[in-house]
Amino acid sequence: MAGMSLFRDDGVVLRTQKLGEADRIITLLTRQHGRVRAVARGVRRTKSKFGARLEPFSHVDVQFFSRGEELVGRHLALCTQVETITPYGGRIVDDYGRYTAATAMLETAERFTENEGEPAVQQYLLLIGALRTLATGEHDSPLVLDAFLLRSLSVNGYAPSFGDCAKCGIPGPNRFFSVQTGGALCPDCRVPGSVVPSPETLVLLGALLSGDWETADATEPRHAREGSGLVAAYVQWHLERGLRSLRYVDR
Amino acid sequence: MYEGVVQDLIDELGRLPGVGPKSAQRIAFHILQSDPVDVRRLAHALNEVKEKVRFCVVCGNVSESERCRVCLDPRRDPAVICVVEEPKDVVAVERTREFRGRYHVLGGAISPIEGVGPDDLRIRELMTRLADGVVTELILATDPNLEGEATATYLARLLKPMGLRVTRLASGLPVGGDLEYADEVTLGRAFEGRRLLDV
């Protein structure tokens, strides 16, 4: 029949919503099509063959059936076949701290990809990398979350500065920090409401943004906590509506 | 569009889960054509359920009195509590006829993305029930999906210092099915939870 097409893509399940008696609407962040919502029929029945594969955090290879020429169009596509690539859910849900951090990641990824069907490869790769790191448990979950949040801001064009002054560019370290102005500020550029975080906190945040885990892992908990607070404030500022799951993160 | 009360009825029915505008119209006309006695019985049942049914003060299950049938039954073992998400789950476990203990209904599962945290569930009430030391085993029977597992993990961590026996319902293959049709996640869990056959 005309106007029907099949698409195949791999993606991470961000969210599932119940639909009718036994179906679900699955929100995925895919490699080629960005955020996609699709209907998975009958997945809530115990006999469903792929219900278990479509749980949040799962990295899956999906075949979609669309009634239009595009994957994202007037009608929601259907998930017709699903294969697991990596079921991150199992390793994540075993640890409550990991679960809450990973949930905040999914919500962030969803919020940074508001336009469905628009490719967001960097965001996709960041999410896969962060879930993989979290599942191995090699770094503290709040640190993995903060690194993910900072890099998500960065790939979406909101990279904060933790060294050079965000206004005049004078090389760091700089003492002041302002969420509204984009990060670290020198004494000349400081704005009202600037905070003065400890220098170690700014070093940590810079390390998380650049992927210097050696420095990040060696940070004292109090600096990590202060860093988390700044990252949360920064993300909330740029996402307008706050992230719901951030306040449930178990630190 | 119909006029007045007929449309009101269709609108009200249309708000029920799984009832679309067409079904609502069909049910409305069925009611219009039914015997007045039948309709009155339906109306009475609707009123009664809202008036009489409340939640058990102990376990949170639906009940017609202050305490539910299970909590009042002296034959039920007070040392074992089965923790479930919804009253519907109590019915499901009761159907097995395997469980002789009591229940605790949480009222949902932890889902930060939906804004549901531990404080929104009846966890504090559960801790209160455990305070007197009568309970020795807790069976975590939350749903075998992500939110359910996360809730079980959270509870297990919370309960650890209390020295209770905390068990999680097994996950695995549906009885009467074929192994080859099982998905790898479920089959993997069945392997993890395998048991020793002692014959």
UniProtKB/TrEMBL annotation, chain B:
The keyword Zinc-finger applies. A zinc finger (C4-type) spans 56-71. It holds the Pfam family RecR_C. PROSITE patterns: RECR (PS01300), TOPRIM (PS50880). It comes from the Bacteria. Residues 79-174 form the Toprim domain. Keywords: DNA damage, DNA recombination, DNA repair, Metal-binding, Zinc, Zinc-finger. HAMAP family: RecR. May play a role in DNA repair. It seems to be involved in an RecBC-independent recombinational process of DNA repair. It may act with RecF and RecO. NCBIfam families: recR. Belongs to the RecR family. This is Recombination protein RecR. It comes from Streptacidiphilus cavernicola. The gene is recR.
